[in-house]
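Quick one: structure for this chain?
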Amino acid sequence: MADKEAILAGLAEIVNEETGLETEEVQLEKSFTDDLDIDSISMMTIVVNAEEKFDVKIPDEEVKNLKTVNDAVEFIAAAQA
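Got it. Here's what it folds into:
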């Protein structure tokens, strides 16, 4: 089980690989769509990669609730608990 800092760092790496955004741009308060300009197709790739990296299942109906980086970090942390 990873702590929230490790989850954030891992998510930042995944976002960087998918979008080319610098990892330090991926911060808890950032919105995936508004601040990071991630479209739905990239978001699905990020979700799939996060599921593999953190060994969690993120149901499709949950993805729409992951609006900010913090939402995703909290979901992954809870799913690992």
